[in-house]
Amino acid sequence: MPVPDTTPFSPQQRKAATALLRRTAEPAAELGRIFARNGHELALVGGPVRDVFLGRAHSDLDLATDATPPQVLAMVRDWADRVWETGIDFGTVGLRKGDTILEITTYRSETYVPDSRKPAGIRYGTSLEADLRRRDFTVNAMAARLPSLELVDPFGGLRDLRDKVLRTPGSPEESFTDDPLRIMRAARFTAQLGFTVAPEVAAAMRELAPRLAVVSAERIRDELQKLLLAPRPHDPVRGIELLVDTGVADVVLPEVPKLRLETDEHMRHKDVYQHSLTVLEQSAELEERYGMQPDLVVRLAALLHDIGKPKTRSRLPDGRVAFHHHEVVGAAMARSRLKALRFPSSVVADVTTLIALHLRFHGYGPGEWTDAAVRRYVRDAGPLLTRLHVLTRADCTTRNKAKAARLARAQDGLEERILTLSAQEELKKIRPDLDGNEIMTILGLPPGPLVGRAYQYLLELRMEHGPLGKERATHELLRWAEGEGLGAPPAPEDGG
Length: 496
Prior knowledge:
- By secondary structure, the chain is an alpha+beta fold.
- It has four domains: 148 residues, Beta Polymerase, domain 2, CATH 3.30.460; 90 residues, Hydrophobic Seed Protein (Orthogonal Bundle), CATH 1.10.110.30; 170 residues, Hypothetical protein af1432; 53 residues.
- Helix content is 51%, strand content 10%.
- Helix 10 runs antiparallel to helix 12, helix 13 packs across helix 18 and helix 17 crosses helix 19.
């Protein structure tokens, strides 16, 4: 059935949406006929319907029905290739047909208790419209009945899609009280879809942000991650701005709003918050240049790279403002926040390393860094080197064109030197010329801290002078041992 002419879309848009809706719903159309023959309703709901009008198809389908889970199981067992019941306690039956994953949920209404976002009770319903009312936003509260494809839009979702605005089907206060995670979803959809939130939604976010305390850190993390990985470079900025403007960030990411430092009377330092948002956007823009997909580690590091500044802000005798060691303090703060949000340990380690290293480049100038210094830069960055290039280049937000050009030339020069040295020495595989076993044999040492110190000494020589060769490395090792008071190594035992 075509999308009705009452929609706020042009005839061409309606025609395209109808065709895409038909293709999207095709895997479930046969199932809709099965349900109809058994006297039950079935409808495509939520994101798949919304995305039809955004020109995007879905491979996984969300369906709603008036049939109870046992009735659903009876109708789908012979039709589906596979059925699973992991969500059946919440009224959901999962199944796969060919390459399509479908989830069928019985119409329901839920009641919540104040200190939890989990439903206190689930009651099955018989009305599709009532089921749609409990959904998070009007753009997700649309359905297409199967198999007819009749569009059901009781809350103006199509209008809000056209206007690119997020509203709730009912009162936003009631919606966010029932499920506070929807507050984070509002920011996520703002980023992913490029929408704005209606004034009443923003007001409810501000009022009910403390309710996020009942939401698990993992769920907040997941929404924040999706927000940051929104596809267009400015999209994550939109989501973060909404979190900060509504006070939600004060609850889930308080280090970011604290970046809004007051400007001193001489206007001698930047608005660190706006600077951080610019770095986030520029990092996202640079990912493609460096052959990267949207990268969570880079974007987290860009957003958080200066969070140590408020704690390290000081005024120098000449009136200037300084933030000494803010990268060290910021790395520690980022580690604590990301661990609290239950990010994987590898993400925590990588983000904090990038923050700790993000100022290292600013000591570089053409002709000023020795090859040894370049080697150390690469060694310390390790597998994060490309991400560090992105963050360092993005961190240049000066409006002084001459300074910006000078920093860009310096970054280009450093990257070129790294490539040259890497080609010459396979820089990423730098090791001392002698390994631990050889050190122990030459010095007659057992395993222990002394071997590690000797290894580090040879590594420093390798970084400073390039490959030494085993003969010279042995000579340098013996000189080091003598300086450490280790004496001559024991003579080898007579094997005769």
